[in-house]
Specification:
Helix content is 36%, strand content 14%. The protein has twelve helices and ten strands. The longest helix is centred in the N-terminal third of the chain and has 15 residues. Bound molecules: NADP nicotinamide-adenine-dinucleotide phosphate. NADP nicotinamide-adenine-dinucleotide phosphate binds next to strand 10 and helix 11.
């Protein structure tokens, strides 16, 4: 497993990280979750990503139990705040109150004294940015959080945050966590351009488009049993990708992967890592074999001809419009 700096910070992360959205505390039983985490550690993954909201806070608990006993200094634990964690009006967003309360819950569930990376899961238009950044900065001073990042923020929102941090001497954002894969490339212009100038690393999610880029979903066929598309929670998130047009283009990628000596999943993860702006690709898994397969994308160099073939095959299925980076207008 190769490691990369998280943006311009001194922190190193494994270029393939493990995340537990949809899976821990929900789609998979605890035993399978533990087996996936064990496989990730065994394969050299050191960076683990979760969020307070995943599985109604249960995902953090499962990950906390699975990582118990692992030398704390040998792993990086990343979580997030913003989406609702309760029914109350302050159980959401990026107010000082919710940040200060939610971090305590995350620390307790993850069984750790500090988080390596604490991320604003979306932009909160109902809280002054200064309030959020001061709360994050206080957590850094308290030693509860080592680095701060954001997720799915637009370039201008990141720019505003950097300006406030600079003028007030507050801790600076080191990372952004956007969706990025062969078919979803909306960060490539504005967000990456700004981030590279400012030293912000991208920890990207859904590198295999939730399983779609493995080729296991066939056009015109029912989704395979046990896959995310058949899961009660997961199906709502993956359904927009299950069009015959996209699925048949993905099938056409098979010979490209074969020629490169990779599985389709490995090709997809490796594709994200070709971009130097990417600090890590966060993979999800329901079975340890998936982790073992996908980590082999670490260190793979793809030939420029392979990249061109991928672009030609996926064609108009590729989404690039930066306007798709967005946060809810009002808090959920
Ligand atoms: N910041 C955000 O807003 C945000 C949003 C979403 C995700 N994330 C982060 O990104 C992480 C990864 O997201 P993701 O789970 O969508 O990533 P992904 O790696 O694109 O998809 C993972 C899913 O694909 C299937 N899969 C994985 N490897 C496979 C293989 N080799 N063969 C066949 N199927 C395979 C598995 O589902 P099945 O076996 O069920 O088919 C697995 O759970 C999350 O855990 C979370 O940490 C962040």
């Amino acid at each position: 497993m190769e490691h990369r700096h998280l943006g311009r910070s001194g922190l190193k992360v494994s270029e393939i990280a493990y995340g537990n959205w949809i899976t821990h505390g929900s789609q998979v039983e605890e035993e399978a979750a533990r087996a996936c985490v064990a496989a990730a550690l065994d394969e050299g993954i050191t960076t683990f990503d979760t969020a307070d909201v995943y599985a109604g806070t249960r995902a953090e608990e499962v990950l906390g139990r699975a990582l118990q006993g692992i030398r704390r200094e040998s792993i990086e634990i990343c979580t997030k705040v913003y989406w609702p964690t309760g029914d109350g009006q302050n159980d959401r967003g990026l107010s000082r109150k919710h940040i200060m309360e939610s971090v305590e819950g995350s620390l307790r569930r993850l069984r750790t004294d500090y988080l390596d990376l604490y991320q604003a899961h979306r932009y909160d238009s109902e809280t002054p940015l200064e309030e959020t950044l001061r709360a994050f900065d206080d957590l850094v001073r308290q030693g509860k959080v080592l680095y701060i990042g954001v997720s799915e923020w637009r370039a201008e929102q990141i720019t505003d945050a950097l300006a406030i941090a600079y003028h007030l001497g507050l801790d600076r954002i080191v990372s952004n966590q956007p969706q990025y894969n062969m078919i979803w490339r909306v960060i490539e212009t504005e967000v990456i351009e700004l981030s590279q100038k400012e030293g912000i690393g991208q920890i990207v999610w859904s590198p295999i488009a939730q399983g779609v880029l493995t080729g296991k979903y066939q056009p015109g066929a029912a989704p395979p049993a046990g896959s995310r598309a058949t899961d009660e929670q997961g199906s709502g998130f993956i359904s927009r990708l299950l069009t015959d047009e996209l699925l048949s283009r993905v099938q056409q990628l098979n010979p490209v992967a074969q020629q490169a000596g990779l599985s389709l999943a490995q090709l997809a993860v490796a594709w994200t890592l070709q971009n130097p702006a990417i600090s890590a690709a966060i993979i999800g898994a329901t079975r340890p074999e998936q982790v073992r397969e996908n980590v082999k994308a670490s260190g793979v160099q793809l030939d420029p001809a392979v990249l061109t073939k991928i672009d030609d095959i996926l064609g108009d299925q590729i989404v690039t419009d930066p306007a798709y980076t967005s946060s809810p207008r009002k808090r959920p």
